[in-house]
Amino acid sequence: MLDLSLLPDGGASWLDASGEHADIVISTRIRLARNLEGYAFTPRARDGERLRILTQVREAFGSLNTIEDGVLLRVDELPAEDRLLLHERHLVSKELAGLNEQPVRTGAAVYLSRGVGIMVNEEDHLRLQALHSGFHVADAFRVLERLDAELGNKVPYAFHNEFGYLTACPTNVGTGLRASVLIHLPGLVLTKEIGKVLAGLQQVGLTYRGMYGEGSEVVGNFFQISNQTTLGRSEGELLDYLVRVVRHVIEREEEARRVLLRDAGYIIEDKLWRAFGTLRYARSLSFDEAMNYLSGVRLAVGLKLISGLSVYTLNKLLIFSQLAHLGNSEGRALTESEANVARARYVRETLAKEAE
Amino acid sequence: MVCDLCRDGEAVIQLTEIEGSGVRQLHLCEKCAAERGVETTIGASKPQISNFLQTIHEQMPGAKGEPAQCSFCASTLADFRATGRLGCAHCYEAFESSLRDLLRRVHGNSKHIGRRYVAPLPSELPHVSSATELRDRLKRAIESEQFELAADLRDKLRGIE
Asked: Is the ipTM of this complex over 0.90?
């Protein structure tokens, strides 16, 4: 079984709750889509082409100065549980891990270093991504920009004078940049303001998704907000705009929380303590259930109703209570009902330890 | 438990209402909850790609003077319409004017104004065999029954080998 603790940062530095507004914004991710000249794009490429792309970039990875020594994982050679594990840890996309309708592609790989990763043979030949804890857009981009410049000197990117960086899907062309923040908005959901806020996002050219990107359901009041367009604005403009709008959403969320406490103090308090009680003592928890209660406890910590529980622990509970993570720590694949029991145990023990 | 309002459907939602200083608990079925403006689930936003695919179907008839297929990867506009993905970087040149219209609709703009990129000189790069590249393109052309292109590529390959 894959041991993620062997990665340079254990594949978990993005969970450490550093960074601005870490109780509301779990993480910031920025990715750049790049393709190599001389090959068909990944979906149309032949197995041999994808393997040659991998060989070509693998050589370049070995001599990168901008990031510390990374680890290259051949995703196409990993069993399904390990591919799911990487996806649950937000290190590879569903597409790269072969968790969509399509099976995993020959040549699918990921190069992982501290807070940075490069997916190879995703929908585009390269997807460079930086993943940071909290609301950390500028820092995440600085790392990525340097990495992109250095890598672009070692392998030739496909670039068009008018259209910019060329991508398999025209929705990514231009900058190839997608920045997204994973944000927790229980206040806006409880005050029923969320519909308006989300509709507003779409009007200003941003989009939202569930925790696991395109097509994923919104669970536990966690949303991903990202830019929709990639062409016709510079990288800096796209990022500034996202930052401005997300700041506004954070303000709305904080305002909603104040209203909740003011108008429904004891009802909210009761609801959140019940969520905490369930997590503390339940013997079986489904994933959705755990997410919803964790959302409640996270809100309670944000409102300072519950103390002594760190945001780092809450982040870890969110990620480590998923199916492949539970299986990984048990050393075998779990059925759903086994996972529910293991999940309840993991959550119980973690909360008990924190309470000591 | 039946719904407190219609006394018919099964109550699936517990709603706490605050009126003045009083609080009341209501047990509602999905339908009554929806009528009172309670969102029972928040669906994921529609993936952007579905709108995008629709745009391709409606707005991309193929401009005059554009080739039927890309000379590098043998993709056609029909392939693009079916998958929403272009075959290779050269498709952007082959279908340039159709794509320009599409990009304007999708992004509100068709001109990149972000970072510019200059590829390293070929002499600074590890050697990539052009024969291998041609062989890949030839196979793809044959598979998609683009025989004219295939013949052309075969000639080029013979010239190299």
From this structure: no
